[in-house]
Here is the input.
Amino acid sequence: MSENLSTSVQYLKSVGPKRAEAFSKIGINTIKDLLFYFPSKYLDRSNILNCIKIVQYVRNGYQGEVTIIGEVINKELIHYGKKNIFKVRMKDSTGIFECVWFQGIKYFTEIFNEGDYFAISAKPVLTKYGNLQFVHPDFDRISKNESLEFLHTGKIIPFYRVPKELREKNLGDFSLRKIIHQAVEKFSDLVEETLPQYILKEKKILPLNEAIKNIHFPSDNDSLTAAKRRLKFEELFYFECLVALRKSLVESKKKNYKIIVKPEPIKKFLNSLPFQLTKAQLKVLHEIRKDLESSKPMNRLLQGDVGSGKTIVALIAMLIVVTNGYQAILMAPTEILADQHFKNISRLIKDLNIKVSLLIGGQKKYEREKILKEIKNGDAQIIIGTHALIEENVDFHKVGLVVIDEQHRFGVIQRSELIKKGINPDVLIMTATPIPRTLSLTLYGDLDVSTIDEMPANRKPIKTVLRGESKLPEIYKFIQAKAKEGYQTFLVYPLIEDSEKMELKAAETYYNSLKETHLKDLRLALIHGRMKWQEKEKIMLDFAAKKYDVLVSTTVIEVGIDIPDANIIVINDAFRFGLSQLHQLRGRVGRSDKQAYCILVTKDEFITNSNMLNINFEYLSPAQIEKSKTIIRLNSMVRCNNGFELSEIDLKLRGPGDIFGTKQSGLPDLKYSDISEDVDILYDAKEIAFNIIKEDPKLNLEKNFIIKKVLKENYHNNLLLSQIA
Ligand code: ADP
Ligand code: MG
Here is the structure.
C-alpha cells in the first residue's frame, strides 16, 4: 500500500498492531500524529561537562546542576544497617563517577546495566573520599553510537516522553527515537504548509516540514531555535487572527443609536467636584468620548492603578449617555462594591436630577420589583449591580453603555450575552490590575486600551516595609500610637489553604486575642467573606464613620473599598499572597493626603537584604526557587509602588497560567509559546494578523485562503471562533 500521513503508525517499521494500540492510547494514531509528537527536551553537547571539569566546579563552590555522559562500569547494592543503597559506578574519558539511590531501588537496578550509556543530570557532590557523586539524578539512556556521534559531531539528541503505555509494549527511549526518525525521514515532506507563502517570506520563517525535521533532529542550536520560532509564530498568529476577527465582527455591527455630547451638564458636574481631573483622566476621557460619538460600538479597556480615579471617568461617560436619553449600566464584581458605587455616585450627582438604581441580591421582594419596573420603563437612568444584571432576566428600556468594573477579575466579557438581549451597546471595561502588555494583547487583544498612567496630585507614595513576625509587638505599638493621630488600620489575614473556614478562624482568633491584649485600648471590628453583604456593609460604613480604629479582616477588603482615613495596612503572612494581590491590598490605603503605610509581615526567614532579583533559577532546587521567588515578591513590593512594573515582575515569576487560571480567563491554551517570553514573536504575529483581517475581513483573497482553511479545520472548537461563526 502507499503510505501517507493519515496511514496508521502500525505500518511503520518495528511498530505493528500491538504497539500501534499502545500509541493510540496516548493519542497517536496516524503518521502525522507521530510527526507532531515533539521532543520534551534535548541533549546538546555544549551543555555536557566531563568528570574533571565538574570536580573543579564543585571545588569552586558551584551549586547548580550539571549533565555528564558516561558508561556503566558496575553496580552494587549496599546494605547499611536497615537501609539499602544502590550505587552505579560510571566512567567518561576523564574519570569515574557514581550515582546513588536510596529509594525505588528495584526499578533502578533493572535499568542500569554494565556497558550501557546514559546522560546523567543532577547537582554534583564530592563524597568524603573525594568521589564525584550524583544522588537520585535524572537520566536519559542513549546508545553507544549516539554517544560517540554526539561527542564527535556535536549533534543534538532529542528525548521524548515515553509514557507507561509505550513502556509496557517494550518501547523505550531508543526505539521510540528510531521510529520517529524513520517517520520524519520518510514523511515530513508530505506535511502541508499551514501559513501563506508571503508570510514565510516576509518574516523569514521556516516552512512547516522543515520545522518538523528540525524540531526532532536539529543539526545545531540555530536550526532548533528556528524550528521553535516557526511553531510559536504559527500558534500566536492564528490566535491573533481569531482576536482580530472578533474585533472586526464587533465593529461591523453599527450601533442603533446616536450619542452627541452635551457639554453643559458635564461642565456643571466637573465644577461640582472638589478636585480637578488629572491630565491622564482627561486624555482617556477624550478617547472614550470619541468612541461614544462614533457609529461603531465602543469596546474599550480602561486600565489604571488602584486609586488612579477610574470611577469618575466612567461616571462621566455614563452621564454623556444618560443626557442623550439612554440608560447606562455599571456592573461591579461584588455586591458590597456595587453598593459602594451606588452610594458614591448618588452623592456625586445628587444635584443633576438623574435617577440611579441599585439592583443586587438580598433586596426585599417588593423593592426589587419596583426597581425592575423602573429599569424596564426607563425611569432608571443609571443602573448599578453585579454581573447578575445581564445574566438574569432583567429587561432594560434603552441601554447605551455598559461599564464593567472588572477589578482584578479577568474574564472576557460575554458581549454575546448582551447581543442576545438585543442590545449592542458601548462597552467600557475597567481593570485595576495593570496588565503586562503582552497579556493585554492576548487577553484583551480585541479591545482598545486607555490607560490612566498618573495618580491624583495630592497623593504621597505609600511607605512599604517588610518585617519579621518577631516584630509584631512593635507593629501593634505603632498602630496604637497612630490611632491617636486619627489613623485607622486594616489588619489582614490571608486565606489559608483555600478553606474559608480556616481563613475565618485565623482572622477571628487574632481578633479575639488582640482585643484582649496588644490592642485592648483600641476599637476593633471583624469582617470576613462569609458574612452577608448587608453585615459587611454595616461594618464598612461604621469603619468609614470612624467608629472603629482597626478592622481585622480576611481578604474581603481587597477590591475597591475606599476609606480615606484608613492609612495603615498590615498584611500578615504576606508570603502567601501573589504580587498583584499584595498591590491591590496596599491600594486600600493612601487615598488621602496623609502619609500611608503598608507593613508586610512574614516569617523571619524571608527577611533578607540581598538583592535577589538577578537570581538564575536554573541552578536552584524547587524549594529554593519558591523561597527566592517569595523574597523577590516581598522586596519588589518594598521597592516599587507602580502596578505596571509589579505586574511585569509577577508575570516573570509565575507565568501567565498561574496568574489568571487557564480556562476561565480567556487566556489561550498555548502549546508552543509562552507569552511571558515570546514577546517579540507575539507582537509580530499580532501585527500581521490584524493587518490581514483589516485588509480582508472575510479572508476572501486568494493569498489568504490557506488561513481560512486552517482556521476552519483546526480551530472550530475554539471559543473565540465559535463566538464569531
Ligand atoms: P480606582 O481607579 O481605584 O477605582 P477611584 O475611582 O475609586 O479609584 O478613585 C479613588 C479616589 O480618588 C476617590 O476617592 C476619588 O474621588 C478620588 N479622585 C479621583 N480623581 C481624582 C483627582 N483627579 N484628584 C483627586 N482625587 C481624585
Ligand atoms: Mg474602582
Notes: Residues 1-38+161-191 form a domain with the DNA polymerase; domain 1 fold (CATH 1.10.150.20). Residues 64 and 621 are 9 Å apart (CA to CA). The two ends are 40 Å apart (CA to CA). The first strand starts at residue 41 and ends at 44.
